[in-house]
Write a structure and sequence with these properties.
Layout (H helix, E strand, L loop, with lengths): L1 E9 L6 E7 L3 H6 L5 H5 L16 E8 L3 E8 L4 E8 L5 E4 L23 E11 L2 E14 L2 E15 L8 E4 L13 H7 L7 E5 L8 E5 L12 E4 L2 E2 L2 E10 L2 E4 L4 E5 L6 E3 L1 H10 L3 E2 L4 E3 L3 H4 L3 E5 L2 E5 L1 H4 E3 L5 E3 L1 E3 L9 E4 L1 H6 E6 L4 E6 L2
Parallel strand pairs: 5-10, 6-9, 17-26, 18-25
Antiparallel strand pairs: 1-2, 3-4, 3-12, 4-5, 4-8, 6-10, 7-8, 8-9, 11-12, 11-27, 13-28, 14-15, 15-16, 15-17, 15-21, 18-26, 19-20, 20-24, 21-22, 23-24, 27-28
């Protein structure tokens, strides 16, 4: 199972929810399930020995890297606290975890929230159906205390699942959305906005640092920026629309040839997507340029291509952000290499959009500044 961050809107009489689109199992997932890296996946330690931040008030929360496909962090819900592993997702704004009422096989191997054990839990009675491309979550809305490190948010709304379909391969318990409130259709205040409203943070800023090929070392930080995680100065880019974290992109080029975003387009930074996603027609042309061939749901690439292929340059708001071949080609087990491009964003039924997922965000440290409606990017250390 892969969460791709293309958001799919489904309407119901009980609840409206925007959540990440899931993709059918691919060769990459199949390889992961062969216990090729069993010790890597089963080890449940998080390295908390991060460098001291420039500003002591900044919370630096460790994230665990699962095969460069998802970055998972720990939070707690309730009083006394119950711990969960969540995907911090800039591509959505809603928050859900599995509950003790969940009867699905997925929930048998997950941490389950028990509202009976929390003295601060409040049930709303609102039922929700969360539908996405190849799965479904049925649950209800509740409110409770949420803790991320030393940050405490009171009476936070979240969905408690009762039934889950199509989530069996996930390495996280739930998803915590960090998009703008407009992206949420629960008509409740998202976690980050409550942090700001309740005075939990002094400035509405968070940032991500993703490491490549290392279990530990990746982080999400709140209430400021630790500049030791990037090289050079941050390049600040205005947010073009306050729903996704999106920007105006000028073009995508390789060797000076425009290969995507031919007449300008929108680029969305999505920490919930492992890929670079664009319109299928344009992505198919890029696959040919990098000698990728279809292997069912994914494209394989000769591993020798990593040495010979040039950077692909994403020009955003007039700034060039090169992504090297070792980033846009994923070297998997048994010497099999895959393209990290995927299609499907035409399903937005809006002007051309590209999703810059973890492929891009491992190369560039990213800062999300709500107050000034801007995104900061700089090469990651």
């Amino acid at each position: 199972m892969k969460w791709l961050g293309i958001l799919w809107l489904m309407a119901f009489s009980e609840c409206l929810v925007i959540i990440p689109l899931m993709k059918i199992k691919t060769m990459r997932e199949t390889l992961r399930e062969k216990n090729l890296l069993k010790h890597f996946l089963e080890e449940d330690t998080y390295n908390t020995s991060q460098n001291a931040p420039d500003d002591p008030k900044i919370l630096i929360q460790p994230l665990r890297n699962y095969l460069d496909l998802s970055y998972i962090g720990k939070i707690t819900i309730g009083t006394p606290p119950q711990e969960f592993r969540v995907l911090f997702d800039t591509g959505s704004s809603d928050f859900w975890v599995p509950s003790i009422y969940c009867s699905s096989p997925y929930c048998r191997t997950r941490k389950l929230f028990n509202p009976r054990l929390s003295v601060t839990f409040q049930r709303s009675g609102q039922l929700c159906n969360l539908n996405y491309f190849s799965g479904k979550i049925v649950g209800f809305l509740g409110y409770d205390t949420v803790r991320i490190g030393n940050l405490v948010v009171m009476a936070q709304a979240f969905v408690l699942s009762k039934k889950q379909i199509g989530t069996d391969g996930a390495k996280f318990d739930g998803i915590l959305g960090l998009g703008y409130p407009k992206l949420s259709t629960l008509a409740v205040t998202p976690v980050f906005d409550n942090m700001n409203r309740q005075g939990v943070i002094s400035q509405p800023v968070f940032a991500f640092y993703f490491r490549t090929g290392k279990v530990n070392g990746s982080v999400v930080m709140f209430d400021g920026v630790d500049h030791s995680y990037h090289k050079g100065q941050l390049k600040w880019i205005p947010v073009s629309h306050t729903d996704y974290w999106r920007m105006n992109m000028n073009r995508i080029t390789m060797n000076g040839l425009v290969i995507g975003c031919f007449h300008g387009c929108q680029a969305i930074l999505d920490t919930g997507s492992p890929l670079l996603l664009g319109p299928t027609e344009h992505v198919t042309a890029i696959q040919k340029l990098i000698s990728a061939t279809s292997s069912g749901e994914e494209y394989t690439v000769p591993c020798s291509s990593i040495r010979r292929l040039p950077n692909i340059i994403f020009t955003i708001n007039g700034n060039d952000f090169p992504v090297p071949s070792k980033a846009y080609i994923w070297k998997g087990p048994k010497g099999i290499c895959f393209s990290n491009f995927g299609g499907g964003t035409e399903s937005f039924k809006l002007p051309e959009k590209w999703i810059l997922g973890e492929v891009f965000l491992r190369v560039y440290f990213s800062v999300y500044d709500r107050e000034n409606r801007r995104i900061g990017l700089a090469p990651a250390v």
